[in-house]
Amino acid sequence: MSEEQNTGPDLPITITPLAVEKLKEHAKNDNKDPENIVLRVFVQGGGCSGFQYGLMFNEDAGGEIGSGDKLFKSNGIKIIVDPISLSYLTGAQIDFVENATGGGLTIKNPKATSTCGCGQSFNTDSVDGG
Amino acid sequence: MLTLTEKARDHLNHLLEKSGITTPDRGIRIGIKAGGCSGFEYHVEPAASQAKLDKIIVLLGVRIFIDPKSLSVMIGTEIDYVDYSENLLIKHQLVFKNPQAESSCGCGTSFQLKEQPKPK
Q1: ipTM higher than 0.95?
Q2: pTM recorded for the entire structure
Q3: Is B109 an 8 Å CB contact of chain A?
Q4: How far is Cα A108 from Cα B33, in angstroms, rounded to an integer?
Q5: Which of A50, A68, A114, A118 is most buried, taking the most CB atoms under 10 A from its CB?
Q6: Between chains, do A47 and B105 touch, taking CB under 8 Å as contact?
């Protein structure tokens, strides 16, 4: 894993306080330490709009750390992302959204040009090189 | 003509509690509107009382208000509250299993009809 641990204000991926609160609840319900959460964010092919987001938690997130992985810390949560996923996710924000029909974690991605109603699938026409 | 699962009941009761509405006649208003990615979408909101033409259906103790037009395209629908947490860790969504709907959007709240409802 990259040694780079970025905690500055210009993080490529951030998480909102509400999403952190919900993740802490999730950790407690799962008998995990809510103060030591590791989250992996990734993008994979699939879904109704071409790509879909995924999130993995704690040991699932850290179990397969690749050499190019980046690690950030936003609002106390460690976020791991692989470089290819990061190229689709720069500027993204992990949030928690709730309305009358349900609620859940969502990824607000400035690079997504279209997003499916499921909130999990998107398309893009801009990808960072490198 | 409509059914509600226990999980959906719990979610709707939670919505009512959160809404701050305390009238004895309160309930959940459910309706269908044009819109969404598949042509129609379900609309759900806590309400202090039914609207003028609404039917009242009590399901598992939850008072559901629904206008006759929406009811006609929802007959046979099971309302469920589904855990979609697999990919995004935390995600729950009301799902309408409507035998009259042909395709449903991934959001679970938008759909197309197999055939247009016939005018009375």
Answers
A1: no
A2: 0.73
A3: yes
A4: 26
A5: A118
A6: no
| Inter-chain Cβ pairs, chain A and chain B, closer than 8 A | 78
Report the DSSP pairing between strands A51-57 and A112-115. unpaired
Domain segments of chain A as ranges: 5-121
Q: How does the average pLDDT of chain A come out, rounded? A: 79
Q: What is the total count of domains within chain B?
A: 1
Residue B10 within any structural domain of the chain:
yes
Topology classification of domain A5-121: Hypothetical Protein Aq_1857; Chain: A; (2.60.300)
- Asked, for residue B116, whether it belongs to a domain, the answer is no
Residue B119 lies in a domain: no
- Here the CATH number for the domain that contains residue B41 is 2.60.300.12
**B6-16 per-position pLDDT tens digit:** 999 999 999 99
Mean pLDDT for B29-43 is 82
Instruction: Tell me the percentage of chain A whose pLDDT exceeds 70.
Output: 72
pLDDT at B105: 61
Ramachandran sector of residue B60 (left: φ over 0; alpha: ψ -120 to 50; beta: rest): left
What residues make up the domain containing B13? 2-111
H helix intervals, chain A: 17-29, 58-62, 83-89
Which pLDDT does position A2 carry in this prediction? 45
